[in-house]
Design goal:
The complex is a heterodimer. Chain A has one domain (2-21, 99-322). Helices cover 69% and strands 4% of the residues of chain A. Chain A has helices spanning 2-14, 17-47, 52-68, 74-92, 102-113, 117-126, 131-136, 139-142, 149-183, 213-241, 245-262, 283-287, 298-322, and strands at residues 191-194, 197-199, 202-204, 209-212. Chain A has a two-stranded antiparallel sheet. A two-stranded antiparallel ribbon of chain A has the order 2-3. In chain A, a hairpin with a 2-residue loop joins strand 2 (197-199) and strand 3. The two termini of chain A are 26 Å apart. Chain B has 2 domains: 5-223, Rossmann fold (3-Layer(aba) Sandwich), CATH 3.40.50.300; 228-286, Alpha-Beta Plaits (2-Layer Sandwich), CATH 3.30.70. Chain B has 11 helices and 14 strands. The chains are: A mainly alpha, B alpha/beta. The A-B interface holds A 3-4, 6-7, 10-11, 14-15, 136-138, 140-148, 322, 324-326 and B 50, 53-57, 74-79, 81, 83, 85-94, 98, 101-103, 105-108, 147, 151. Chain A: The chain crosses the membrane at residues 18-37, 157-178, 223-242, 249-269, 298-320. Chain A: One of its GO terms (cellular component) is plasma membrane. Chain A: This is ABC transporter permease. Chain A: Pfam families: ABC2_membrane_2.
Chain lengths: 326, 304
């Protein structure tokens, strides 16, 4: 089995996928770092001070102003009210919500890349793992060795898991290093609030507690990794089912983008919560943002993703071991 | 002396949907022989070969490689088999050596020594560390063979091995296959849609059409009495009358005459023509083309 994984790794490296992905991540992190830097600067200019309390107060005033607008949709309003309460809570307890520093940037970057950017990167690796062997024709050589088919597929899947872990690690390392140059590398111990519960009556702060940022980040990374594995497994299944890499990528891309769109508009279509793509923003539960559909929470989303993962894995192995290769 | 049977196929069938593609094939391969699998495109050659190498599951029937049933003892059976199905599709982004390493890792106990051996055998030593995408088609074909030979198989299955090769490449490939069978004692199964190729390469041939084997025989038997001679003579009428008095003839539209080929009689006919004052501008031995052979064997059944 080790030798098979070595083979898959050799092919993956020769295809230079990981390097391309690392480059993309590097470029994006640099862009975001610059954007964040600009944002901090303009805020400072506007308020004439770098004191975060004034900034937070300004934000609260902004939010209140927006809330008083009558043309606002109900769900949007609810969300704003919740974030208003959060901001108020930070202010009352003298906690800086965006403690500047590389770890904070990392957290923000992770939270924003969990539902689209990282899944896309993972998809780039996963979606041609099997289908490229088909389009190349090398599948015929691969399956005419004295090795059972499920072992061949398992070696590919393990390779995928390793590659996904590597991509998540690269994301963490690059976002820390690049943003650290601008914002400084400190801030691991900064306190951050978590445990907000959004219920039907609004924000429930009874379980709110303070966490060190590094603990929070560790949890974030766990969630990001889990989401990436699930998305990777789904792309892997499509790669087994659809021979053309482009078609497989297209289907997965459509699913991911529709997820991003759906989360903004499905609050009245309740059964949509069983779709995997509206459950990808796991880190939002840690922050206490309102879920797209009522009744969704962290364990629910993890369960849904787990079911999709298991089904995709089963389908992949079932089809791969049974199907005739032409 | 009956030689060992290395590949045994019994009543192999394949249905796709309700259509029966392969309708019960039975044949054996013996040690050290080159066995031709001859049929037009669409006769079921590739489907059959894919069933022999485990890519397609047969609907019924059995394939035994060196005594191991392919379905029940896949690993043991495949250890004795090397194959190229259609073109040898190796990884273009890896070097030739890494390709061989890749497939050696999938076999037990095959290491660098054997990789070096097969590289030398197919004459790729100089270019083995170059990327496969820089290889010519002939080199890819040779690398494909090297890959198939890695596990020291008893049976080698090659699907259209000369496809896309230039004449020199075809000759080289032919000699190599003969060498493997005669000197290394491999059983080689070669598929082709070209009768001429099979004739030069194989000891025995199975002719397949529409998913059934029409005939299995040695090449000599198959082609016996089927060779023709093309005559171009003048004056035409006189020559025609003389020839038709000697043997049944067939007049072609382009002004040539066809007769059967007979080792003893054909020179005799020529002599008689010359003596009668007919000048012979062309005598040409002609192999039957596959289509004609088919027409004869199937009794007018056309190729799909």
């Amino acid at each position: 089995m080790n030798k098979l994984i070595q083979n898959e790794m050799m092919k993956l490296i020769a295809k230079k996928r990981l390097i391309v992905i690392a480059l993309i991540i590097g470029v994006l992190v640099t862009l975001f770092t610059y954007a964040q830097y600009k944002q901090v600067q303009t805020q400072r200019e506007k308020l004439g001070t770098s004191d975060w309390r004034t900034i937070l107060q300004q934000q609260i005033i902004d939010t209140t102003n927006r809330l008083s607008s009558s043309r606002m949709q109900d769900e949007w309003k609810k969300q704003l009210q919740i974030s208003l309460k959060q901001q108020q809570y930070y202010l009352d307890h003298d906690i800086n919500p965006a403690e500047p520093g590389a770890p904070t940037f990392m957290r923000i970057f992770l939270e924003n890349s969990i539902d689209l950017f990282l899944p896309l990167m993972v998809m780039v690796i996963a979606s041609d793992l099997v289908s490229s062997e088909h389009s190349l024709g090398s599948i015929k050589l691969l399956l005419t060795r004295p090795i059972k088919r499920w072992k061949v597929l398992l070696s590919k899947y393990i390779t995928l898991c390793l590659a996904v872990s590597l991509v998540v690690a690269i994301t963490g390392i690059l976002s820390y290093l690049i943003s650290g140059i601008v914002f400084g590398f400190k801030g691991w111990g900064a306190p951050i609030l978590t445990g907000f519960n959004v219920t039907e009556t609004g924000l429930n702060t009874s379980e709110v507690k303070l966490l060190s940022l590094w603990k929070f980040l560790l949890m974030d990374f766990g969630l990001v990794w889990f989401v990436s594995i699930v998305v990777g497994t789904l792309s892997f299944m499509l790669s087994v089912l659809i021979r053309s890499t482009a078609a497989g990528m297209g289907v997965m891309l459509a699913a991911l983008i529709s997820g991003a769109i759906l989360t903004n508009m499905v609050s009245s279509w309740e059964t949509a919560k069983y779709l995997f793509m509206v459950n990808l923003r796991l880190t939002d539960y840690m922050k206490g943002t309102a879920p797209p559909i009522e009744g969704m929470n962290l364990s629910f989303s993890i369960m849904i993703l787990f079911v999709w993962w298991a089904a995709a894995l089963f389908v992949s192995f079932f089809v791969f071991t049974k199907k005739d290769v032409y | 002396m009956e030689k060992n049977i290395t590949l045994s196929v019994k009543d192999l069938k394949k249905e796709i949907g309700k259509r029966e593609i392969i309708k019960g094939l039975t044949f054996d391969l013996r040690e050290g022989e080159v066995f031709g699998f001859l049929g037009p495109n669409g006769a079921g050659k590739t489907t059959t070969i894919r069933m022999l190498v485990g890519l397609i599951k047969p609907t019924s029937g059995s394939v035994r490689i060196c005594g191991f049933n392919l379905e029940d003892h896949f690993q043991d059976a495949m250890k004795n088999l090397g194959c190229i199905v259609e073109n040898p599709e190796l990884y273009p982004y890896l070097s030739g050596y890494n390709n061989l390493l890749h497939f050696a890792r999938m076999l037990e106990g095959i290491g660098e020594k054997r990789i070096k051996e097969v590289t030398e055998l197919v004459g790729l030593t100089e270019r083995i560390h170059d990327k496969v995408k820089t290889y010519s088609l002939g080199m890819r074909q040779r690398l494909g063979i090297a890959q198939a030979l890695l596990g020291e198989p008893k049976v080698l299955i090659l699907d259209e091995p000369t496809n896309g090769l230039d004449p020199a490449g075809i000759r080289e490939m032919r000699q190599f296959i003969r060498y493997l069978a005669e000197k290394e004692g491999l059983s080689v199964l070669v598929s082709s849609h070209l009768l001429s190729e099979i004739q030069l390469l194989c000891d025995r041939v199975a002719i397949i059409s529409r998913g059934t084997i029409i005939r299995v025989d040695t090449v000599e038997h198959l082609l016996a009495n089927r060779e023709r001679v093309v005559w171009r003579i003048s004056p035409f009428e006189k020559g025609k009358q003389l020839l038709s008095s000697l043997t049944p003839i067939e007049v072609k539209e382009d002004g040539t005459i066809l007769t059967e080929f007979n080792e003893q009689k054909t020179p005799e006919w020529n002599r008689q023509l010359v003596e009668a004052g007919v000048s012979v501008t062309e005598i040409n031995r002609k192999m039957p083309v596959l289509e004609e052979l088919f027409l004869e064997l199937t009794g007018g059944d056309t190729i799909e």
